[in-house]
Every structure is written in structure tokens, then in C-alpha cells.
Specification:
This protein has about 350 residues and is an alpha/beta fold. The protein has 11 helices and 13 strands.
Length: about 350
């Protein structure tokens, strides 16, 4: 991290977390953020779900909710980015305050509730995105929707021709009963509808599923079965957690989803269990607590082909994506791997 970036983070820490996020978006718009470009190597390049990725480090959904800063984000060093979540109708989300920094824990708690400007505005921005780079969209459902499964289809119909992949997000804890869609029957019906919609688009983009970390072993097994049956292209493991174990910050009492470093072990165990169940048949994207090349390497050893991060940017800045990619390349070489695929799942047993 450069000195300018360190100073910028110190200034952001002095303001409300959500206001700080808005300032970060503005900084990207005005070109005041890192432009180092994507780090890549023969060791890091992969084709996952039909996507040619220069490195395995992605930006998770939630940072650029409204697809406002796609071009500058693609220049910060990430191998791919995911914007959204987008819902059919614009949505204000939950009442403020709804984002809390847990400085002592290197984490955060949010209860945004899918605040976004709606699929029409987001689709318009996506239609004007740069031709380069891999850009996905997180699909969401409106809080007051009477048929949430249809919401996912609507967003995909509207935005699908402008993105490289779509993520079905049934794992946010901040929309009441949304996680109920992770049940076997509901999830099968939902994914079947989304895939049928995808098949009618002009582009056959891959469909990902994002799951929660607060799942039992039986529920993880069921999700693996549904994933195989519906033939989705990848699973993102995991979203934020409701668990509050071993936190130090005064904000630990806040309701919402916990992300960042405290989520690392829990999300990695879910990842490893899922990888064990899937037996390499469906790629997994590991998310939760990644703040270094070492953490990314552990996710890969636990079964992830790709990783995503978000909360760590609050503490380490936007140059972190490139830094992790470069550090991961060195770690793979140090451990005798000629290609990242050789390391995927090599440490599953450590997390089961």
C-alpha cells in the first residue's frame, strides 16, 4: 500500500462507515485510486466456467452496488469483479446506521437490505461498461416482493446480455426469509428458472450460486446435490454470517451480517465441506476473511479455484487485490506448484 493510500484510509476512518464508502466510490470516479492494472502470470491464468481469468482474485458484490465504477475497478488489479446486488425495483434498504466497522476484529457488520437503484439503471450502466475485463452481477430480490424467485429472473432478463456471469444470491441475512430459498426444493425450482432464462439470452453466461456460512453439514450436502442436478457453473462460499463468536468490538451487538477476518475459519470450513461433496465437479469461489496472499492460498487449498474479497479493502486499500495476486503467485512457486490448479483442494482435510 502506497503512502497516499494509507493517508486516504486514515481520513476515511474519521467519518461514518457508509459515508466513507460513498467517498471511496467518488474517489474511483475521479481517478484518485490505484491504476496499477491486473497482475497475471502463466501460473495464475485459468479458464473457470468458460471465463478466461488473468488471476483468481475477485472483488465481491456489495462494493459497487450500482455498477457506477466498473472501469476504474478493473484497473486496480482484480482478475474479475462482481457488482450489485440488483433488484427489479429500486430499494432504499434498511434504516441507517446499517454499516459498522469492527476495527479490533478487522471486520464489519452490515444490514443494508439490498439497497440499490434498481435493475433498469444498473442495466444501462452495464451496457456502457468497457469491453475488457470480467464483470458479473449479483441478482437480488425486493424485500416486499410476493414472488422472490421471479425477481431473480427479471433482473437476469434485463441485465444478462451485458455481463459475463450472474450470481443468484439467496444468502444475504438482511432480507427476511431470503435464506429460506436455500432449501432443497425451493433452491432447485429457483435455479431451474434462472438457468432457463439464461438459456434464452443472446449470451450463454455462467450462473453462480452464493450460499451462507451458517449451514449444517446436511444442508451443505443438499446444496451440493442441487448444484449437480441443476448444473450451475460455480458456487460462491460464503456470504456473511450471523455468528458473533470471539469478537472484541463494541459493535458486535449490532444485527446484520458479519464479514472480514472473523469469518475466515467458518467460511473456509463450509468451503472445504462443499468441495468434498462436489468432488471437483463444480468450481468453488472462496469468500470470507481474505486479507492477504496467505489467506487466499488457504482458501485455494481448501478447495477454491477462485477467491473474492471486499471487507479487507476497508483496512488495506484498493491496491490489495493486485498485492494478493502477486503474493499468491510467489506462494505457489515457493510450494512447488507450476499452476494454481495443482493447489486447489490440496488441503481440504485440514478444514473438515
Amino acid at each position: 500500500m502506497k503512502i497516499v493510500e494509507k493517508l486516504g484510509l486514515k481520513l476515511l476512518y474519521k467519518t461514518d462507515p457508509e459515508n466513507a464508502h460513498h467517498l471511496a466510490i467518488k474517489a474511483l470516479k475521479y481517478g484518485l485510486t490505484p491504476k496499477a492494472g491486473v497482475y497475471t502470470s502463466k501460473r495464475l491464468k485459468q479458464n473457470i466456467a468458460g471465463l478466461e481469468l488473468p488471476n483468481p482474485i475477485g472483488l465481491a458484490a456489495g462494493f459497487d452496488k450500482n455498477a457506477e465504477v466498473i472501469a476504474p475497478l478493473l484497473n486496480t488489479g482484480f482478475g474479475f469483479i462482481e457488482v450489485g446486488a440488483a433488484t427489479p425495483e429500486p430499494q432504499k434498504g434498511n434504516n441507517k446506521p446499517r454499516l459498522f466497522r469492527l476495527n479490533e476484529d478487522q471486520g464489519s457488520i452490515n444490514r443494508f437490505g439490498f439497497n440499490n437503484e434498481g435493475m433498469l439503471i444498473i442495466a444501462d450502466r452495464l451496457s456502457k461498461r468497457p469491453n475488457k475485463g470480467i464483470v458479473g452481477l449479483n441478482l437480488g430480490a425486493n424485500k416486499n416482493s410476493s414472488h422472490r424467485a421471479i425477481d431473480f429472473v427479471k433482473v437476469l432478463e434485463t441485465c444478462g446480455n451485458f455481463i459475463d456471469f450472474a450470481t443468484v444470491n439467496v444468502s444475504s441475512p438482511n432480507t427476511e426469509k431470503l435464506r429460506d430459498l436455500q432449501g432443497e426444493k425451493a433452491l432447485t425450482a429457483l435455479l431451474t428458472g434462472v438457468i432457463e432464462t439464461r438459456n434464452q439470452l443472446g449470451r450463454q453466461i455462467p450462473i453462480f450460486l452464493k450460499i451462507a456460512p451458517d449451514l449444517t453439514s446436511e444442508e451443505i450436502s443438499q446444496i451440493a446435490q442441487v448444484a449437480r442436478h441443476t448444473r450451475i457453473d460455480a458456487i460462491i462460499a460464503t456470504n456473511t454470517t450471523l455468528d458473533r463468536t470471539n469478537l472484541m468490538s463494541k459493535h458486535q451487538i449490532q444485527t446484520g451480517g458479519l464479514s472480514g477476518k472473523p469469518l475466515f475459519e467458518k467460511s473456509t470450513r463450509v468451503l472445504a465441506k462443499l468441495a468434498y461433496e462436489l468432488e471437483g465437479n463444480i468450481p468453488i469461489i472462496g469468500v470470507g476473511g481474505i486479507d492477504s496472499a496467505e489467506a487466499a492460498f488457504e482458501k485455494i487449498r481448501a478447495g477454491a479455484s477462485l477467491v473474492q474479497l471486499y471487507t479487507a479493502l476497508v483496512f488495506h486499500g484498493l491496491s490489495l487485490g493486485r498485492d494478493i495476486a502477486k503474493g499468491l503467485d510467489s506462494l505457489l512457486e515457493k510450494n512447488g506448484y507450476d499452476h494454481i490448479s495443482q493447489a486447489v483442494g490440496s488441503g481440504i482435510q485440514d478444514y473438515l
